[in-house]
Each structure stands twice: as structure tokens, then as C-alpha cells.
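Q: Hi! First time doing this. I have a protein sequence and I read that you can turn it into a structure. Is that right? Here it is:
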Amino acid sequence: MPPKQRKIAIMGFRSVGKSSLTIQFVEGQFVDAYDPTIENTFSKTFKVKGQEFQLQLVDTAGQDEYSIFPQSYTVDIHGYVLVYSVTSEKSFEVVKIIHEKLLDMIGKVQVPIVLVGNKTDLHMERVISSDVGRSLAESWKAAFVESSAKENESVMDVFRAILIATEKQDGNPEQGKSDCNIL
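A: Yes, that's right. Below is the predicted 3D structure, encoded as C-alpha cells:
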């Protein structure tokens, strides 16, 4: 069975760890210093529930509340990983704005999304609780993962969750809640 092609956009405010998450997932290493101004695309083959996926990960340049949403972020994208830092109220506010703009652009009420609270290793600086993140994700009907790219904590879970969400969307949009496996 050939791998399924999936294109995933990773979005969020600057310095929330989008690139760190992506590079940790793709290359298995934590990159602290990274040029945040460029958009980058990474590829990785990843297996979920016996299905192989050829992933294209679009690591976007950081957005803020005034960013114009490029049309390219909606074309051929199968799912979105929206990242905020658990240490930044601002990044949490921006992720809500990105979500709104996303829905405006796509015109779909339901789009495969995983909300990620990153930087859980910075316990002392945390300002966004897990409960607050989780309830936002629930209001979007999105999956929720907290992660630490630095400690490689739950990084795989982020990408597994978005692939499962895209499969649900593909399989039967009418019954988005079903847990059927597509074989």
C-alpha cells in the first residue's frame, strides 16, 4: 500500500517553538538557535495505525494578530498544528486569531487541527494551564497536546494526532466523531 501524502502547516506566534517541534520530529534533535524569519518545508515518512504517510510539514514564519493569511496556507493543506507557548499569554491569544482567520479563509467549520501547548519544560514560567488549553481545543473540536520540543516530550503525539484527525476528515466527514480505522 503506497504511503498517503499529507501536507500539514505548523502555525503560531513567533518563538513558540514551531521549528523546534518540527525539527525534533523530523531529525530527532533540539535546535535552539534557528532563523525564525523563513518558511521551511520538511519531509518525513511516518506510520500511524499501520498506514504509512509521506508528510510534508510547512513550518511557517511566525504569525501575529496582524499577519495577512497567505492563500498558500490553505491550498492542499490537510491539517494544521497550531502552537502556542504555555509561558506566553500573547501566543495563546494569537493562536485564537490564527484559528479564526483559518476558518475565514477555508470556509469550513471543521478542519483537522491539533492545538499544541509547547515549552512544558519551563514549569516556573507557565501562565497557560493545561485546562485552559484543553477547553480551547474542545471548543474548536480539535485535538490537544502539550509538549516540550526541548525534552522531546509528546512531539510524536502531536503529529500522530494531526494524522488521525486528517483521516477522520477524509474517511467520513458526516461522522467526524467515529473512531473507525481506514484500512
